[in-house]
Design brief:
By secondary structure, the chain is mainly beta. The protein has a single domain, classed as monomeric porin ompg (Porin). It has 4 helices and 14 strands. A hairpin with a 2-residue loop joins strand 6 and strand 7. The longest helix has 16 residues.
């Protein structure tokens, strides 16, 4: 669901006069008839691999990777919008003769928005084929495919309607005559992506990719006799790792997402300081600043310790909603843990090369 529409709905819910309730009711009908739902999204898109590109499945030095992401936003304006993701990835088959391997992953997403607890639960299986394009592993190509099961739901009992207005306030315990036949529905969909890595020398590393989601355009209608096909979502990204000294890297990046009429652009830079590079004692700190177009400034703070990566961002709202939000947007946390099987590299590098 478009987050701008959801924010307006929550504002109407908290204000009780009959005219506002009528507007709310009309908004719900409009959304039910033409629900062009937007997906879960994170400011730390680079730390949620299976939500960014199926081709990034098991794209890592490690044999296994476990990830957690949590986002809580708009608590200063309305009921918080909550997002949670968990994933596990593994390298499953190695093909030494052509320097490639297959990756497999599982992804769980849970998203809940507003007073009505409009939510999405997703379980997905993701796979990838990652191929070295030369003997030095300085160029890698990955393609990926993801199949997912979704359940969307809404709780109408948490909403107020005009007939629940008693003249001075609304009472959710009063009944209403509205008859919503659908409060949840399920669907399957398919997504795919491609990723390319190139390291022309030991000071520059490029990563870029493209993914397309909901290729089968499943129906999203909350009305039994209406169709609202989910827009295909296109995502592209590019990041560069610039080694300025032995211990200091710069990471400029850009991310673009478009789904129907909705789009998101995030651009910024991270500063990465490798304090200890040996595997047994690896430790690094990073800070960053990003801009989400027409929406927020994003502050980033991260820490890598041995095989654990922790990231935190805070969105400073600079959109027209800042009058109500007081510039407070959302807090987001990420956690990744890499597990090595068999021989381990002497150094852990943020970019997985070499990985064969």
């Amino acid at each position: 669901m478009d987050r701008d529409i959801e924010k307006h709905i929550n504002n109407y819910i908290t204000y009780k006069p009959p005219k506002m309730q009528a507007i709310l009711f009309l908004l719900i009908l409009i959304i039910s008839l033409q629900l062009d739902a937007q997906d879960i999204h994170y400011s730390q898109y680079y730390n949620s691999n299976l939500n960014l590109n199926p081709a990034l499945t098991a794209y890592t030095q490690a044999s296994y990777r476990f990830s957690l992401n949590n986002r809580n936003q708009w608590s200063s304006v309305s009921i918080p919008f909550k997002s949670l993701s968990a994933s596990m990835e593994a390298k499953v088959f190695h093909f030494q003769h052509n320097r490639s391997y297959l990756g497999l992953g599982i992804l769980f997403n849970k998203d809940e928005a507003g007073d009505s607890k409009y939510g999405t639960t997703q379980l997905a299986i993701s796979s990838s084929w990652i191929k070295s394009l030369n003997r030095k592993n300085s160029s890698l190509l990955s393609v990926g495919l993801q199949a997912a099961f979704y359940q969307r739901s809404i709780d109408y009992t948490k909403l107020y309607f005009p007939e629940q207005w008693n003249g001075t306030s609304s009472n959710i315990n009063y009944g209403n005559s509205e008859n919503f036949k659908v409060n949840q529905f399920n669907f399957f969909d398919v997504s795919m992506g491609i990723h390319w890595f190139w390291a022309p020398n030991n000071k520059l590393k490029f990563n870029t990719g493209f993914s397309a989601w909901h290729l089968n355009r499943p129906n999203q209608s909350l009305m039994e006799d209406k169709n609202a096909l989910l827009y295909i979502k296109y995502q592209s990204y590019c990041n560069i790792r610039i080694k300025t000294t032995q211990v200091f890297d710069l990471l400029p990046s850009i991310f673009i997402s478009k789904q129907g009429p909705y789009y998101e652009i995030i651009a910024g830079i991270r500063f990465y300081n490798k304090i200890q590079q040996q595997r047994k004692h690896y430790f690094a700190l990073s800070t960053g600043l990003y801009l989400r177009s027409n929406d927020a400034l994003i502050l980033f703070l991260g820490m890598d310790y041995k095989t654990i990566k922790i990231g935190a961002t805070y969105d400073i709202n600079i959109s027209s909603l800042s009058v109500a939000s007081h510039y407070m947007g959302g807090m987001e946390l990420s956690l990744q843990w890499q597990l090595f099987k068999g021989s381990r590299p002497k150094k852990i590098t943020p970019t997985p090369c070499p990985i064969f």
